[in-house]
Amino acid sequence: MAVYTDVSEGELESFLREYPVGRLLSYKGIAEGSENSNFLLHTSEGPFILTLYEKRVHTEDLPFFLGLMHHLAEKGISCPLPVERRDGALFGTLAGRPAALITFLEGMWMRRPSVVHCREVGRALAELHVAGQDFPLSRPNALAIDGWRKLWAGSHERADEVEKGLATEVDQDFALFAREWPTDLPSGVIHADLFPDNVFFLGDRLSGLIDFYFACNDFYAYDVATCLNAWCFEKDFSFNLTKGRALLAAYQEVRPLSEAEKEALPLLARGSALRFMLTRLYDWLTIPDGALVQKRDPMEYIRRLRFHRAVRSPSEYGLA
Ligand SMILES: Nc1ncnc2c1ncn2[C@@H]1O[C@H](COP(=O)(O)OP(=O)(O)O)[C@@H](O)[C@H]1O
Ligand SMILES: N[C@@H](CCOP(=O)(O)O)C(=O)O
């Protein structure tokens, strides 16, 4: 459940008066998602999504996130369009939180993505990378190595509660990344969280991308690695080579990877697995039991991390 902040009908109505969206007919909290509070609204002008930004989203980053959605939508990427207020602003304040209204996207996310879905997401990711190339704003990745170190500092002491020996194991990954993390791969705007729950489909056709609230500037290939982790592993933590091949081939039809990007993929996939393990671990250890938030299992990403440690060649992900 991700509704951290309650909104009363009265305060919502007065918030909506600033928007050209007609009269409020109904609204309800959305259980899915984990970072922000989301509501589905019906107004006399149609359905909208209302988002109240919570702990990991800072107000100063909203022009980047909302401006990016605007930019991508104009370039033909199917993503929500932030609705402009009457004063031209893309967000306001509601129930003490920064809040925005975005257009509603049709479709549903795939609980069990198939090879066809992996192909669709590979292509969409590359199109997003290309469409973002002339976006004028930039935002450093707050969850790059320095961000990982902060999360690790906040959970290191208790990591062995999740699995004995985990703290020592992960310390070794940090040591490797400090020495070998690439510095000069092609970079630009990346989504940074393109998991299945952030990609909508109508049948087998991708209908839209949502949740740009980790978007930032970083290596394109790091985004590819994040998608390999999120889309191409099976429930038993085996890597599905057919899915990997489909995702990478579709990506490369739009934006071919350089030799340096291909070579870096095992390390980037390992780093991306660590990044998601760390946010999950931090939340696992700090969010109180019984809170109305769906906690995600850090072990799922430790298992991926272990897989990548053993990878010797990018061909093991399906790269030709
Ligand atoms: N533009 C949209 N159109 C339709 N549904 C949306 C849209 N944005 C969010 N949702 C719904 O809200 C849920 C949570 O959104 P998400 O942005 O992933 O939240 P969080 O940032 O908290 O993870 C999604 O799974 C989806 O059901
Ligand atoms: N995708 C992340 C968590 C972020 O949640 P989202 O609902 O914003 O995609 C994870 O799986 O750890």
TrEMBL record:
Q: Aminoglycoside phosphotransferase domain location, by residue? A: 27-257
Q: What is the lineage of its organism?
A: Bacteria, Pseudomonadati, Pseudomonadota, Alphaproteobacteria, Hyphomicrobiales
> According to the UniProt entry, what is the EC number of this protein?
2.7.1.39
Species of the source: Mesorhizobium marinum
* UniProt pathway: Amino-acid biosynthesis; L-threonine biosynthesis; L-threonine from L-aspartate: step 4/5
Q: What InterPro entries has UniProt attached to this entry?
A: Aminoglycoside_PTrfase, Homoserine_kinase_II, Kinase-like_dom_sf, Pseudomonas-type_ThrB
Query: Which GO molecular-function terms appear in the entry?
Result: homoserine kinase activity
The keyword Amino-acid biosynthesis belongs to this UniProt entry's keyword annotation = yes
Which reactions fall under this protein's catalytic activity?
A: L-homoserine + ATP = O-phospho-L-homoserine + ADP + H(+)
Keyword line: Amino-acid biosynthesis, ATP-binding, Kinase, Nucleotide-binding, Threonine biosynthesis, Transferase
Q: Which is one Pfam family of this protein?
A: APH
Q: What is this protein called?
A: Homoserine kinase
Q: Which family does it belong to?
A: Belongs to the pseudomonas-type ThrB family.
Specify the superkingdom.
Bacteria
